[in-house]
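Hi there,

I know you've been waiting on this one. I reran it after we fixed the sequence typo, so this is the corrected version. Both the input and the resulting structure follow.
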Amino acid sequence: MVNESKTIVSSWNEWDPLKHVIVGRAEGAMLQAPEPAVYRDFTKDGFPYGTWGPMPEERVAKAVEQLDNFAGILEKRGIRVDRPEPLDFSQAVQTPDWKQESMLGCMPPRDVLLTVGNEILEATMSHRSRWFEYLAYRPVLQKYYAEDPNFRWEAAPKPRLSARTYKKDWHKIWNDLSEEQRSQKAEASDWLITEVEPLFDAADIVRFGRDLFVQYSMVTNDAGIRWLSQHFSDHRIHKIRYKEMQPWHMDSTLVPIRPGLVVCNPARPVLTPKVMELLEKNDWEVIWAPKSVLTEKRPLCYCSIWLNMNFLVVDPNTVCVEASETPMIEELEKHGIEVIPVPFYDVVMFGGCLHCATADVYRVGTLEDYFPNQVEGF
């Protein structure tokens, strides 16, 4: 039975019992037009570099089916599910600074919306094709605002995303580098965006109650991390860097399951070792994620092959995992976790797996400190 009660917005972490969630949609999604932040080359899938257009109808249909099934699984567990309202993502969009020939879609609400306590924050977004994506979520946010008098509805400063926001010809330069040179750039965190304005995607933030871990990445810069530190001044903000060629969100890198238990990506060396010190100092057990069953990216997919980590925690003892990811399922079951297998790999080319496809509205719980023993300077 779906919970039809009035909206309450509240979620402090990634694991408290989930009662209300937003699940994305695949309808109308695009392989977006080129822009300074985006380099897509899917020649073998019919979209060589420089081309764009609607995602193939048969792929949209499969994704819609799996998203609807996922929403149904959650509803059967008594979780209220809301969905965004797709826009005409094929339209060109513009501001006084730029014109972009297409948008993207609204499958991954986790990228756009960050829930901290009774606040939902609309992230800046770092791609021109995603600048207006927040509009797909405005109908549900307006409903929450009407129903919950304590709901704090916030939006980070919209960035200009002018040419100054990006390092000139970054992708072209990257493609011409040797593997050793790419590794050096990754070590130095020499990525695409500059520091002229605050930038962050919501999926670069992992919530541990009083502590928010924020990844410095291709879409999140120091100015964005500083803005988050000022905005969430009652929280401890921890900047994290990983040695990854093109880091793209943190929910396939550092994924908590419950207090004291976190899954980490063994293929991404942490460049801020104090995060591991903080976990150890507070007796957090680390599960090193097994390899995904995927050996290569799915067609038209720009996400990592570590999507086996991109799962949704329903409560501290229950996790939704992509149904084919047997190694991850078995690893979680070893720790006494009930796994709900969810077929989802026809969705991932639309922007991610189960965690990406959701945004918390309400989890039963309060703000707590899970790291009472802090590490100096972190």
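Quick highlight: The chain has one domain: 18-363.

Best,
R. S.
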